[in-house]
Design brief:
By secondary structure, the protein is of the alpha/beta class. It folds into three domains: 117 residues, 3-Layer(aba) Sandwich (D-Maltodextrin-Binding Protein, domain 2); 82 residues, Periplasmic binding protein-like II (D-Maltodextrin-Binding Protein, domain 2, 3-Layer(aba) Sandwich), CATH 3.40.190.10; 90 residues, Porphobilinogen deaminase, C-terminal domain (Double Stranded RNA Binding Domain), CATH 3.30.160.40. It contains nine helices and 13 strands. The chain has a five-stranded mixed β-sheet, sandwiched between helices. A five-stranded mixed β-sheet has the order 7-6-8-5-9, with helices on both faces. The chain has a three-stranded antiparallel β-sheet with strand order 11-12-13. A hairpin with a 2-residue loop joins strand 11 and strand 12. Helix 8 packs parallel to helix 9. The radius of gyration is 19 Å and the shape is globular.
Length: 307
Amino acid sequence: MKRARIIVGARGSMLSVAQTGLVIRALHRICPGREFILETIKTMGDRVKQWGRNDTGIFVKEIEDALREKKIDIAVHSVKDLPSKLPRGLCLAAVTRRQDPRDVLISRNGYSIFSLPRSACVGTSSLRRQAQILHIRPDLKVIGLRGNLDTRIRKLHAREYDAIIVAAAGLRRLGITGVRVRPVPVELALPQSGQGALGIEARANDAFVKRLVSALDDPVSHACVDAERAFLRESNAGCRMPVAAFARVSGRRMILEGMVISLDGRDMVRLRASAPVRDGQKLGRRLARQVLRYGGAKILKEIRNGA
């Protein structure tokens, strides 16, 4: 049965509202006769200032609950916030074309990761970013930094930090200008699984909605995201652990890099493998097992034990 009104659920943060607006405008262009209404939902990650490294789904659980209870019809997420295993009855119906997946370094002086002064203070809330920064520059001081993007940039200008690291895609989607940005190459720091991509989640049995949003799906981005999430799922590490995977497609083959790194950046296992694009999820699982076997499992165990 056709529905004239579609309720779109998302977090109420400035970035979430902006990127959900992009999805809604795209849906309007595809289906101009339908009404798409944004329903903002406060998640645990929005309410709680501190969370543990093993916490998963802190920015999506309440939204997924609303989706399963049919209070909303679809949910828009940053794919990097989604747990690697979705709740029963839900599916990732579409993945929009991925934007720049890299991290970027923002500073008042336009520093790169290598030109930052010795012992400079770098702000990030990500253990993955922290570990990779320290692997590259063990002399730097990495300090926790939470809040939305404009809050983080304001703290930088207030000289609470010498530099901060954030996702390039978030800056672009918010249209933030007037800051000095230096991208961090993926050769130096792997992005978080799914970073730069937006995911549209739906009920698995809602054929109408799945068909509606399928027009926004980018097959290459979706395949890459699926491989990265398979790596994360097989490694049994939550999205808040210092684990990363990044997939690229070249011709008919997918190249996947995966990594596990200690919190201090001293120990790292980073491997690369490739396979036909159609076997991306198998590739993700296989590479994760290799990373764990070559030392990644030991690193994760030490992190979980607080070593």
